[in-house]
Amino acid sequence: MKKCGDEVLNAALNAFNASIKGDATAMTLLGYTYRLHLKDSVKSAYWIEKAANAGNLDAKYWLGKYYMHGYGVTENRVKGTSIIIAAAQKGNKLAIECLSEDFNMSKAEMRSNGISV
User: Which of 36, 46, 56, 100 could form a disulfide with 24 if both were Cys (CB 3.0 to 4.6 A apart)?
Assistant: First the structure.
């Protein structure tokens, strides 16, 4: 009988193998695994940043949030905001929602920043 922990470990190992080959989606999954299951903020931030740099927009959004709150990185709200805006400009729904709800940015303000809403 397999345990839930075994499934998480197998998924993490598969994600790691794909990540070192450059798979941005796998890097994102590995970052989530470090965050949610292994509670390692530094390694989570490392893989989320690699995934963001490789073009994964969800990772880009989360990297912005990490910088906003100093999760695994030195807190830098300006950098975090800039990253979230960049993800929103590329159409990331989480980033757009964040700008609307957390930053109270109006649709007109978003449009003036190159965000399609």
Answer: 56
